[in-house]
Amino acid sequence: MPIYEYYCHNCRKRVSVFFRTISSASDANARCPHCDGVQLRRLVSKVAVLRSEESRLDSLADDSMLPGLENEDPRALAGFMRRMSDEMGEPMDAEMNEVVERLERGENPEAIEQSMPDLGEGISSAPPDDF
To answer: In terms of pTM, does the model score above 0.85?
Structure first.
């Protein structure tokens, strides 16, 4: 079942149009699911690229951040943490967001750790039971 995205000139919405078969998929057969309009302009759809964990980790290992990390620049560490969160698809919780924001302001990581004694509490270093 092909799915195409269109812009409807009648209701001014971006819509997805589903076709039952590839042979029926054509701009002439497209109708807006919101207003039943036929004045549609086909859009280029976004694509998702599936990547392995290894590929995501490789992209984190590029050389652009290494000088800042080696010089213990808190802003470089914050940037690395944000990239890691993005690459892994794991959003940061409120506590980690606070840490990253403080690093972006240039605060010393050790000072942040001292001011947040419960940081990382509840994180186990043991592997999961099903490992």
So the answer is: no
Tens digit of each residue's pLDDT (9 = 90 or more) over 80-114: 888 888 877 778 888 889 999 999 999 988 898 88
How close are the terminal C-alpha atoms of the chain, in Å?
39
User: How would residue 32 be classed by pLDDT, with cut points 50, 70 and 90?
Assistant: very high
**What is the rounded CA–CA span in Å between residue 63 and residue 8?**
45
What does the chain come to in residues?
Answer: 131
Domain ranges of the chain: 3-42, 53-115
Closest CA to 119 of 91, 92, 89, 80: 92
**What is the dihedral sign for C-alpha 52, 55, 61, 64?**
negative
Rounded Cα gap, residues 78 and 91, in angstroms: 14
